[in-house]
Specification:
By secondary structure, the chain is an alpha+beta fold. The chain has helices at about 20-25, 55-60, 85-90, 130-140, 145-155, 160-170, 175-185, 195-210, 215-220, 270-275; strands spanning about 1-5, 35-40, 45-50, 65-70, 80, 115, 120-130, 220-225, 230-235, 240-255, 260, 295, 305-315, 315-320, 325-340, 345, 350-355, 360-375. Strands 1, 3, 12, 13, 14, 15, 16, 17 and 18 form a nine-stranded antiparallel beta sheet that branches. Strand 12 and strand 13 (about 305-315) form a beta hairpin. Helix 5 (about 145-155) crosses helix 7 and helix 7 crosses helix 8 (about 195-210). It is globular, with a radius of gyration of 22 Å. The protein starts with a strand and ends with a strand.
């Protein structure tokens, strides 16, 4: 079976008014366009050419959700549960209605995710920076009362990062939050900030978008990553993260479980957030993929999904189909055919779905595609 898929961009406020339109070569709508979902998730299943949606074909059994993501503003700081945590939370909240604002768990699945940049620059906050490095960064800030309090709390014994995040989000630190943000904005203009200048300016931009939000100071504790086109980042369970800007291909386990930690008007359940947050600090590596210029594989330590990038240069490229597979076009003019004789032309920004009944799919043309499927 070979199906042609599309979907309407979701209009989240942080979405870009131009990135998806530029990718697809069309006139912008003027509205924010944040994500295009290619999957069978009930929240927004993909449309099938000829009628219907993908979930009607698959029964909602896909283990992954593939997206195009276009951010003009920072997304909320968030963290996702492990599989055991998700199952326990889903069972614990079983009596709550699906739309109950007190619900944290939308399903019983975990949500590891991988993003690969399509724009020349994609910025994110990923994981917590080692405390010793953050203390060095704080030396560049004016030593007001809020900065002094933050420094003292970071230097305390125990799980300092967990305690600081609880303090920042707990509702009693707004004065200190305001003082720290003010110091960051001043420091971002320093000419002697050295290697920290890019990070400080990124946090200052976050502060301009979310004025007075305690999440701005949480962001100050996180690693600032800048991805170039074709580079990726894998976000495991428990890892605090937030995308800041750029266009990318995102794939994740089929779940909608999100615990928020700032930069949002939505509810933040601080105790539940802290219960699943992994505060182990450290650098989050940039994935540059493995393979040659024609095929790049992005290895991830989960079985829910796999992702490969293929540059097609005229010669047919055969893809082994070992499970439900998607082919997403991100550049050029390509088509997908199967051994059963079916064929579809893919416009940039659209996808083809190949079910496991096909053994091989073939991509032809000149362009770039991402191949999504189950992991191993």
């Amino acid at each position: 079976m070979l199906l042609s898929l599309s979907n309407t961009p979701r209009d989240y406020a942080w979405g870009s008014a131009s990135l998806l339109a530029d990718l697809e070569g069309r006139t912008p709508t003027g509205a924010p366009e944040a994500e295009v979902w290619f999957g069978d998730h009930p929240g927004d299943p993909a449309d099938v050419a000829g009628g219907g949606t993908l979930d009607q074909v698959t029964g909602g059994t896909l283990p992954y959700l593939l997206k195009l993501l276009a951010a003009a503003r920072p997304l909320s700081i968030q963290v996702h549960p492990t599989l055991d945590q998700a199952r326990a939370g889903w069972e614990r909240e079983g009596a709550l209605a699906a739309d109950d604002p007190q619900r944290n768990y939308r399903d019983g699945n975990h949500k590891p995710e991988l993003l690969v940049a399509l724009s020349d620059r994609f910025e994110s906050l990923s994981g917590l920076r080692p405390v010793s490095d953050t203390l060095v960064l704080l030396e560049l800030l004016d030593d007001n009362a809020g900065v002094a309090q933050l420094r003292a709390r970071l230097e305390a014994d125990g799980d300092a990062l967990r305690d600081v995040i609880a303090w920042l989000l707990g509702g009693d630190a707004q004065q200190e939050v305001n003082e720290i943000i003010a110091a960051v904005i001043v420091a971002a203009e320093r000419e002697d900030a050295g290697e920290w200048q890019t990070t400080l300016r990124a946090i200052a931009r976050v502060a301009a978008t979310y004025e007075g939000d305690p999440g701005v100071v949480v962001a100050l504790l996180m690693n600032h990553l800048v991805l170039r086109r074709g580079e990726g980042v894998f976000l495991r369970a428990g890892l605090l993260h937030a995308y800041l800007s750029g266009l990318g291909v995102e794939i994740m386990a089929a779940s909608d479980n999100v615990l928020r930690g700032g930069l949002t008007p939505k509810r933040i359940d601080v105790p539940e957030l802290l219960s699943i947050l992994d505060t182990t600090p450290g650098e989050v590596p940039v994935l540059r993929g493995v393979g040659d210029s024609g095929l790049t594989h992005y290895p991830v330590p989960v079985a829910d999904f796999s992702l490969n990038r293929i540059v097609v240069q005229g010669d047919p490229v055969a893809i082994e189909v070992s499970g439900p597979t998607m082919v997403l076009s991100t550049a050029g003019t390509v088509s997908v055919s199967t051994s059963s004789g079916e064929s579809v032309d893919l416009a940039v920004g659209s996808a083809a779905f190949v079910d496991e009944g096909e053994r091989v799919a073939t991509v032809t043309g000149v362009g770039e595609v991402f191949i999504a499927g189950p992991g191993s």
